[in-house]
Structures are given as structure tokens and as C-alpha cells.
């Protein structure tokens, strides 16, 4: 997410929960935990973001996706832009300034009062990328889906689509599910396109 794109106390608190301590991941068919901020790699996003260094973050997808889709590994990596925000957040974690609900709340309130400083050098855009690795037609392939837009649109529009699909009876399962457990992907992607959220789809070996 972009510090120049997403603001507010809740957003800051969410970041601190995601980047401190140990976080869930799914490897070789089993849930485990890894250190937040570990196993960094550089990932290419559509313009204007470009190449971003990402690392393990705490988020629900490694916990939910394996419950509905037959997969071997699910990991979630993320980052803040500009990158100096990540280095500062990592320092907060190593100094023990974040990592518990009380610490996260206290530090979030402090940062919230000066959050305008953290937008320096940033881009008013956020992105997401999903890489699906496996075999297709007997060959190892990667399907990649990526998107760049404003954070408000990337979070609100998908939630709105889900709510409308539910209201219109297009979600037939009853109970509590993660999105991947009850929403038909093609229909959802079509609704994103209709609302101007452009998802870039690529395939490579």
C-alpha cells in the first residue's frame, strides 16, 4: 500500500498488526508461522508502481485460501511505498515499539499526528498481484493477475460487489465464508472491469 494513497488511524494500526512478530503462511500443505518482514523479494507491478520490494506480512489469505482451494503453498507478501517507510516500520518492530494491541494503538496514535511526513517521495496509488504457479497442459506455468489503483477503490469496490451479489441472490452458500469460498471468480472479475478496476492478466513459464 502507498503511504501517499492511504491515510487514517485505522490504516496505520492495520499496518502495525501486519508487520510485527510472527505471521501465518501455508507451506507444503500445512499452516506454519514466519517472521513478518522476512524473505523479501522484488515484484513487478503495473505503472506507476513498478518494482517493489515485498516481504511476509500478516493477512488472512494464507489461512482461508487452503480451506477452499486445493493448493500446496499460499504466502502473502506486501510492502509500503515509499520503501523508507518499510525500514522505519521494521525499526519500530525490532525496538519492540509495536507488536501487541496496546503498543500498536499507542504508536499508531503518534504516527497519525504526523502521517503527512510519511507520504514524502510516495505515489498516490496502491497495488495487488496474485501469482498462481502450477502445471498447465503438462508444463509448469505461472498465471499472474495484477492491479494498480487508489486504495479506497481497491478495498471498497470489491466489498460493494460482494454485497450486491449477496443481495441479488448470486451467492447461494449459507453461512460465513471467505470470498474465495462463495463468490464465482469470473463473474466477480467482470464486475471489477465494469467498474473501471483493470486487472492485468499474464501467463508465462
Average pLDDT confidence is 94
As a whole number of angstroms, the C-alpha radius of gyration is: 18 Å
Give the proportion of residues in helices.
Answer: 25-40%
Secondary-structure element string = HEEEEHEHHEEHHE
Number of DSSP E strands: 8
Class of secondary structure makeup? alpha+beta
Count of DSSP H/I helices: 6
What about the largest sheet? Answer: 3 strands, antiparallel
Provide an overview of this structure.
The protein is 34% helix and 26% strand. With 205 residues, it is of the alpha+beta class. It has a single domain (9-204), classed as Dihydrodipicolinate Reductase, domain 2. The protein is globular and about 50 Å long.
Please give a handful of descriptors for the protein shown:
single chain, 205 residues, alpha+beta, Dihydrodipicolinate Reductase, domain 2, 3-stranded antiparallel β-sheet, 34% helix, 26% strand
Question: What is the compact description of this entry?
Answer:
Helices cover about 35% and strands about 25% of the residues. Strands 3-4-5 form a three-stranded antiparallel β-sheet, with no helix packed on it. A three-stranded antiparallel β-sheet has the order 6-7-8. The protein has a two-stranded antiparallel ribbon with strand order 1-2.
Layout of helices and strands:
Blueprint: H1 9-19, E1 22-27, E2 30-35, E3 41-45, E4 50-56, H2 61-68, E5 77-78, H3 84-94, H4 101-113, E6 126-136, E7 139-149, H5 151-167, H6 185-194, E8 200-204
